[in-house]
Amino acid sequence: MTISTIFFGTHNFAAKILAELIKNGSFDITLAVTQPDRPAGRKQDLEIPAVKLLAEKNNIPVAQPAGLSLRGVIPFPDFYDLNILCQYGNIITKEILDKSKYGSINVHPSLLPRYRGASPIQSALVNGETETGVSIILMDEELDHGPILAQKKMNIGDDDNFVSLSAKLSYLSAPLLVNTALDFVNGKITPGPQNHDQATFCKQLSREDGKIDFNKSAKEIYNQWRGLAPWPGVWASWENKRLKFINISPLPLYKGDVGRGYVRGHKLIIACAQGAIEILELQLEGKKPMVAAAFINGYGKINGAILR
Length: 308
Known about the structure:
The protein has helices at residues 12-24, 50-57, 94-97, 120-126, 162-185, 218-228, 292-298; strands spanning 3-9, 27-33, 38-40, 45-47, 62-63, 82-86, 104-108, 116-117, 131-138, 148-155, 201-202, 234-238, 241-251, 261-264, 267-271, 276-284, 290-291. It is an alpha/beta fold and 308 residues long.
């Protein structure tokens, strides 16, 4: 039996899922729906979604609706078996959720009902969680609310960041999704309801979420960096400019004035309420990224300055 499937997804995580579906051979991906190409980075070069690149490589038709409404934009077939969604980034209406024979399955990188919403991986890291996982759910009209088909846990390493944890979760998710979808379509799985009383939520991130409060501990700030690098990144204000910290390391035993920068040889250290963070690589607003030693050579007056 071949399962005719429409895939909704955009980023690298979703592309890993799509690759596994293609590799398996049991799924006929009739259409890939993804976000439009958009300008990104300092040069505003057009960024093509990872799902689009993979779909085109495998001769899968691609649709890129610009708005939330998909009606009349996507060439849905009259009959097909399944929708599969992962990191799509737009709301799917009930009409579309219910259009396929078996409904719509979503891959969500958290242990639902915890961290429903747009930033589950980032939020788990920022909050210092030591365990996460992936949930495969049958979608309903509410956000990450539908009954659970399968879940799998994994530990979060002390130095995992968004990039590394996303990669680990994608490798965990891909085979789980394929096996779960096959079992569900073949009637081997009965969806189980989530415990909605235990639900927690995470929001769409913005640049302001990356602003550092040096009244927090070094560990808390390091966790913030782990979750928010490379985007939106973590930053502080210095001389009325945004100073972005691309790579940092915690110094839990260091003592100094909160928010003050200390130059120690080729090292740049900023004290927190408890401990400090060493800045390994940084970028001043309007300038190129540089390692700490190069920044100190050009901006030595940061020694003793207070960052906000």
